[in-house]
Every structure is written in C-alpha cells, then in structure tokens.
Amino acid sequence: MFDSPFRLIVLHSLTILALCCTSYSFAETNNNDFSISGFGTLGIVHNDTRQVDVIRDLSQNNGVGYTRQTDVGMDSNLGLQVDGRLSDTLDGAIQVISRRNPDQFRPQLSWAYLRYLPNDDLSIRTGRLGFDVYMLADSKNVGYSYIWIRPPIDFFGSLIVSYFDGADAKLSRNIDDGKVTLKFYGGITREKIETGNLNQILSLAGSKLLGGHIEFEEDHWAIRASYSALKIANEYPRLTSTLARLQSPDYQIFIPNGAVIANQLSLKEKIVRYASLGIVYGNGPFLGQFMLNDIHSDSLIIPHSIAAFLTLSYRIRKWTPYTSLSAARPIDGSTQLAISPDMPQAVSTLITRINRRVIGQENSQTSLSYGIRYDVTNGSNIKIQIDHIRNDDHLLVRKVQPGWNGHANLISAAYNFIF
Question: Which of 295, 353, 367, 378 has fewest C-beta within 10 Å?
Fold first, then answer.
C-alpha cells in the first residue's frame, strides 16, 4: 500500500496548491475572516533522583533528574495559530509551536492546511496535519485542553510522529442519538527522533504514512478504533557499521545467518504499525478515560509492545482532582542473538552490543499519577501533579546511571492558558 508513486505525487501537489491558495486568498479576503489565537504552558518539574533523566517523549534528548533535578523546560511551550475563512466552503489554519525539541526551544510548523467543506458531513484537508492516531494525540501540546500536566508518558511518549505533510478526509453521519465518524489520511513525515545517543538521530524524512479511524459519539460516550502504518525511509545511523559487519564474509563464518539478522535489525523500508482503542465517558462532573495501543514492526529495533492508561477525575466547582494509572509492556520479550564459545572476541563483543543496546531497548514502564487542576479563568488553569514511576527497560528515560533502582518520583506544577 506504500509503493504507489502516483499517490505521493498527488499528495505533494495538493500541499503546494493549498499553500499557494492560502497566500493568494489572504490578500484578497476581508481581515474579519481571519483570527489569531494561541496557547502556552509554564511548567516546572522536580525529580527526586539524579540517577536518570525522565523525558516527556522521544523527541527530547534531555529530561529531568540527571541533567537538571528541577527543570522548567520539560513541559513548557508556546503556540500561535492563525485561522482563516476563505469562502463558505474553504478555510485553513497555520500553527507554530515552540517547545523543547530535542534540547532547545525551536519554533516548529505543526499545522498548515487548507480545508474544503462541501457539506456538513464531509471535510477534506491538505497541507501539514496533526497525527491523531490516538485520541488527544494532535493536541497533546495544548496543556489547557486536558486533565493532566502532561499526557501519560508510558502511552504517548513512544509515539514518534506528531505531524505529516499530506491529506485527510473525514465523513460524519448522525445515527439515532449518536454520531459516527470515519477518517482516512496519508502523507509524508519530516521529523527527527532523538535516541539518547550523541549524534545518533533517526530521521523520518520521506517516510510514508497511511491510516484512519472510526469513532462513535453520543451524550456520554466517545469510542475510537484506529490503525496506522508508517514505512520508515532511512536507516538508523548507529546501525550502519553493525549491519555491514553482519553481512561481511569474515563475520558470516561465525554467524552463518548474519545477513538474515542484518535484515531483521534494519529499519530502512520497514513498517511500524499502530493499533489503538480509546474510550471516554463523561457524565456531569465525572470523567473517565481509557486507552489501549499495540505497536509492532518488521524490525527488531522497534519490538512489539502494548500500552494503556486509565484516568478518573471529578470536578468540584473550579477544582478537579484526578488520578491516573498507565503502563507499557513488551510482548514476547526480545529475540537475543546467541554467542558460542568458539567465536572470536570481536564477534562476541558485537553480538553482546547488539543484544544490550539495540534489541534490548524495550518499553516497560509503569506510572501512578495523581493531581489536581484549578480553573483560574475560562482560559487558564493551574495544575499540580505527582508521578510515581517504575522503569524496567530504558526506552523512555535517558542518561541512566549505574546502580539506579528503576524508581523515580516527579512533582510538577504548571500554568496553562489559551487566548
């Protein structure tokens, strides 16, 4: 499903057309049809241990703990959005956000799209779009919009795509007392992923993305099932020399299936699949959220894993206390390469390095969080949150020091606002 160059040419052409139309229409349209809005978070977080950096997601290279025991950059951000209506059936939006990515605050164009609305049930967008593979995924940087200080790290932290350049189509239908929505999307990703190793960045530039979801909503319930597939275009730089050695005749004397192993380790042209289920129940002041995902790929570097979280909250006037339990677990464990006594030291060292640093990077972490949100105004709130984290594998942490027992406790505070 990824091999059609025609599809990619169409998507790129639509993107260019959308941006050109937006520029032309802005000059010709009354200024009253355009609006500027924004959002931001001023956050501070403290880690009770200096033996590890806890990160918000895989886009960050440094976190809180080892680098800085108290940090103001992990959750803080600022975003600006321009919305414009070009006609009765055509509108668009541009959004720029500045957040720590990976070590510095750099403005990033997260949305830039043109939307066509031929009727009340159908919308078609083209340009740069948020990747909403999970509920809340495309608004995870808008701290004002959700209950926690940060979306559960165990669930959202391993998501390596936040936007793509392409197109989507959404069709909605009212049925009885509810509404059903179908959405399909496709395009090209552009982001770079930090790996926690110096100068070892995985570039997703040119990677192809296809997916969609079906969602049902009624008075109290919202249920969404999603599926997406990402075909990675580039090799992980850290693996280049390892793959070459596995495929060399000298190493294949002791590793006869070296070429097969190299293919299993390689990331280039491999597909990562995301399946998820989200359920939200709201009734008066009570809100419950449950989400489950399944991530698997054709490469041993991204092992099969599942993650889930459950959040419960109850609003009492301007106060909303909440608690959340989240966890991520590997499925079936990692496939370790065998070492035999007759192997030369260089070969056994290579296999040991692959087992520990490449195949062994699984996602196993549990977090128990509880906190409270106070609504200051209709456009701002303050949150305080405590997280108890238990980490067994080091995918979502950085700079692990010898002797760390896998436990970390975070206390966080944040002021969130929209305007």
Answer: 378
To the nearest 10 degrees (0 to 180), the angle between helices 240-247 and 258-265 is: 160
- 107 prior amide bond cis, ω within 30: no
Q: Distance between CA atoms of 347 and 337, rounded to whole angstroms?
A: 11
Q: Considering the entire predicted model, what is its pTM?
A: 0.86
- CB burial string 298-318: b at 16+ within 10 A, e below: bbbbbbbbbbbbbbbbebeee
Span 253-270, pLDDT tens digits:
777 777 877 888 889 999
Domain 5-418 matching CATH 2.40.160.10: the answer reads yes
Helix 240-247 crosses helix 345-353 at what angle (to 10 degrees)? Answer: 130
What torsion, rounded to 10 degrees, do the Cα atoms 145, 148, 149, 153 define? Answer: -110
Encode 193-214: b = buried (16+ Cβ within 10 Å), e = exposed. Answer: bbbbeeeebbbbeebbbbbbbe
CB 384 within 8 A of CB 371: yes
Q: In the Cβ-directed half-sphere of 242, how many Cα atoms lie within 13 Å?
A: 24
Chain-centre distance of CA 400, in angstroms?
22
What are the structural domain ranges in the chain?
5-418
Angstrom distances, CA of residue 348 to CA of 123, 258, 278: 56, 13, 44
Distances (CA, A) of 58 to 100, 174, 363: 11, 38, 12
DSSP three-state, residue 62: coil
What values do phi and psi take at 386, rounded to 5? -120, 130
Q: What is the pLDDT of residues 307-365, one digit of tens each?
A: 999 999 999 999 999 999 999 999 876 566 667 777 777 777 777 777 766 665 678 99
Name the residue with tokens 């359920």.
279
